[in-house]
Every structure is written in C-alpha cells, then in structure tokens.
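sanity check this record:

:::
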Amino acid sequence: MKYKDDRTTEEQSTHNVLITATDKCNWHLPYGSNKCAWACRPEDADVVWRWVLGRSDMKYVNVTHGEWKPRNAGAVHIYRVGPNHPALNQ
C-alpha cells in the first residue's frame, strides 16, 4: 500500500480530525481502492465534512480521529486542510 500524509509532526496533533472517503474513480488499482482523508482542526470539521460529502468523486464519507490505516487500500493520501483550502473558502 502507498501511504502519504501531508501533515507535519506538529500538525498531526493540531489537525487530528480526519474526514475520510473512497475515491470513486479508484484508478484501477490491482491491490485495493484509493482512500483519501482531509486532516483538519476540530473547529473546521463540520465544514470540511460537508465539502467532501458534496464532491461527486468521493463515496463512503466518514469522520475519524487520530491515526488512520484503512484496510483494503491500495493507496492512502491524507491532505492537510490549511487556511487557504477550498473547503474553508466557500
């Protein structure tokens, strides 16, 4: 499994709410599905959740906290939601 987390070590404690989803496109990975998460601060979780839920390319949107290691994933990417992220600038 490919695993990428865009957060710094410090951001792993401040951006500890993860809005998770499965990419519908799936990129035809032979070894599992493509999983995504947007790491945000707790106070931004509701707006980020609604933003991910509104994306047509994502399914199975959930919220989790802390470390996230999904099963049956071919690739995992955790994106950091910073102050200029589209979810926060709507």
Remarks:
- The two ends are 33 Å apart (CA to CA).
- The mean pLDDT is 89.
